[in-house]
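Hello again, I could really use a second opinion on something today. I've been puzzling over a protein and I'd love to understand its fold better. I'm sending you its amino acid sequence along with the backbone structure tokens. It would help a lot if you went through both lines with me. I've dropped the whole record in just underneath, so have a look.
***
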Amino acid sequence: MPKQRTGYVYYDENRRSWTARLTYKDELGQTRNIRRQVGNKTEGTNLLKKLQRDIDQHSSTIIDGAKLTFTKLADIYRDEKLIEPVYEDGVRVAGLRSYKTERRRLKTLVAHFEKRRVVTITHSDILKFKLKRLKDPNKRDAKQGINSTLKLASVHRELQLMRAVLNFARRKGWITRNPFELGEPLISMASERKRDRIMTREEEAKLLAACDTPKRRHIRPILIAALRHSARLAW
């Protein structure tokens, strides 16, 4: 039996915006409604077509983006994207080598946005998250007795994951716009502070000792010259 559904796009005079509405019956015979704000009538029509295709191909409960919380979205993204890498003939075809690290970052995002409906998350909300994280203590430094806040680079990695999650939701048709695109850039790689670090005497000794083999002995003079050069620059 074909799924019953009707869809239309209309202009809301009160909100002064276009809205796409789709009404359909799910597998249990319950009537469901999806409403999404769109930029114009054409965008709304295209969105309705995509939603209807998704209903044909997937469970209707999965695409109810109007009620989708960030926690639920994160669960779906984790299970589809942040998985152990899969290889075919030595080539990675799915998953991530750093999936464990990304899952830890995802937990941080979930702890902040939790039950927020994804369609309500704004550019301003993400900016507030960024500013908050920049004030949070650096747990890694704290273990060494150092009192410091998170580095900008660490916060940027979390924001990059947040952007990827929201792009995933947009491709699925659960949101029509990624909030990252609706304001000033939230990620600036040029702003990240480059770290200059000088090796300790012990580290230098270990490095040179590692070159004390027939295969690496020719590298030793080059390393000695490089270490002396870096020491002069430091002074």
In short: The chain has a mean pLDDT of 83. The chain has three domains: 5-61, 66-191, 201-234. The longest helix spans residues 152-171.
